[in-house]
Amino acid sequence: MSTPAPAIRVVVVDDHQIVRDGLVSLLTALDGIDVVGSAADGREALHVVEQATPDLVVMDIQMPHLDGIEATRFLTGRNPSLRVVMLTMNEDDDTVLSAIRAGACGYLLKGAGAEEVHNAIRTAAAGGMVFGASLAAKVVGFFAGATGGAGSVDDEPFPDLTERERDILERLAAGRSNDEIASALFVSNKTVRNAVSSIYAKLHATGRADAIVKAREAGYGRD
User: Fold this and answer.
1) Phi/psi of residue 48, nearest 5 degrees
2) Which residues of 164-173 are buried (b: 16+ CB within 10 A; e: fewer)?
3) Whole-number Å distance between alpha carbons of 189 and 168
4) CA 219, CA 153: separation in Å to the nearest integer?
5) Higher pLDDT, 55 or 111
6) Domains defined for the chain, CATH in brackets
7) CA-based end-to-end distance of the chain
8) What is the pTM of this model?
9) Angle made by CA atoms 95, 130, 174, in degrees to the nearest 5
10) CA 85, 88, 91: angle at the middle one, nearest 5?
11) How far is residue 71's CA from residue 48's CA, in Å, rounded to a whole number?
C-alpha cells in the first residue's frame, strides 16, 4: 500500500480579513492542503513564511506596508524553491508581467472557484505554472513574444550552462514540470531540481517564471 503524499503546506496572505479567513476555510477543507499560517500584508508575510516554512504562498497583490509583488520578489529571492500563486482582482498587463518577473508561478483572479484554486495549488506545488483561463492567452503572449526587437540570437546565449542544463532549460522553457523533465531525460527528480537551481543562478533569474522568460527570449522552448 503506497504512502500518501505529504500535505502541501500553505500560507495565505491578504489584507482583507473576510477574504483571508474565507481562503483559509476553503483551503483547510481541501484534501492534501495544510494551511500553516496567514498574514495581513506583505511585511507580515515575510515573518510568517520564515516561521511556518510553507511549500507555497497564496498572495494578494495590493496590500499596505509591502505589496504582494515586492513580497514575492523578496521571498523567492531568499528561497527559490518557494512557490507563490497570486490571487487578486487585478489583471492588467503590467501587473501580471511584474508578478511573473518577481517569481510568481501562478496568477488567479479572486473569482476563481474552489476546484480551480485547488488544481492551481497542486500544479504549482508540483513545479508547474498555472494561470486562470482569462489570463492564459495573455501569459502565453508574454512568453512567446518576450523580445520586442528582432536582434540576432547567439548560438550560445548562456555560455555558463552545461549540456545537461541546456537540455533541462529547453524543456523548462517549454513549460514542462520537473517530473516530466526527469522522465524525458531518464534522470532523478533530485538531479533536475539541482540543475534547475543552478540554471536560476547562472541566468540570474528570480524563479521559474523569470527563467522561462529569459530562456524564451534566447530562443529556447520554441519547438
Assistant:
1) -65, -45
2) ebbbbbbbbb
3) 12
4) 7
5) 55
6) 8-143 (3.40.50.2300), 163-217 (1.10.10.10)
7) 40
8) 0.65
9) 100
10) 105
11) 12
